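Each field is set out underneath.
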Amino acid sequence: MFTSSELSEIQKLLTPNHNIVIITHYNPDGDAIGSSLGLKHFLKQKGLEANIIVPNDFPKFLKWMPGAKQIIIADYKRKQAGEAIYNADVIFVLDFNASHRSGNLVGPWIEKARATKILIDHHQQPDDFDYIYSDVTIPATSQMIYHFIQELNEENLVNQEIAECLYTGIMTDTGGFRFRSTSATTHRIVANLIEKGADPATITSNTWDTNTVSRLQLLALILGRIEVVKEGKVAILWLKRDELKEFGFQKGDTEGFVNYGLSIMGTQVAAFFMEDLYDDFIKISFRSKDEVDVNQFSRNYFNGGGHINAAGGKYMKSMEETIVDFKEKIEQEDF
């Protein structure tokens, strides 16, 4: 958490005469959107306005959240996003640890911005910012936003809108409270959010009960060819670009697919490889159990990173070459 002196300095920055911008990472997920909206609504409770900027569009199943329609998508509104960042006095950097994680458009804007930059994030090895609240033991940035509110002694400002957004972020980034990093503190915060108006049944339905026929067809395809290697410890799933197009892929359709590999009895690692829809690279998602560190594995071999049990990567080879390289590298790992 920020030190008491840092909190005092940050509090002084949060004034009506300052332009406040909230930015999250490329390909925003539930925690990115939940933490950003949660913080925006909290600032609104303090009488402050803030713009949320995301580098590119986010899944439809997150657009039910209060305030989601006001989010500025830089890919669609480049001028508005660029001007907001240029004119910002304060920038909150949420759910990513380095400017380049916000993409080739927004990343350079962050680096050039004159604003005071405040990082709140739970990924490893954060870059330097003016103020840094980084804790890799916390399962979701949305939980960190709640802690931030607590440290400001302003929990009384948490309303239903804030509660719904932070609950969604915590729920999605903990896999429905299943991941190992989910703590007793996490559950206590979730209980507080429920008391403030977050309804678990409604949020779960809005966020996860959103299957389409095309998504289920993609899921059926990928489940029909799961490959298990390394004596049953590693599951491999993959999708090619032409398959995505065939089934009418939309952003968010493959969310959670990698977890099916990890659900197989005896597996310690699941890897999901997907050809990018437009560019010639492979997007990779890694998940693991217990002490198996896919963050370091991804950093070492696949130009990525993340958390010990959840990481991503990017590879510039073909699908066939990527899977061959992965199999070679994973066999060298000792677990």
Residues 213-331 form a domain with the Diaminopimelate Epimerase; Chain A, domain 1 fold (CATH 3.10.310.30). The chain has two domains: 4-208, 213-331. The longest helix spans residues 30-45.
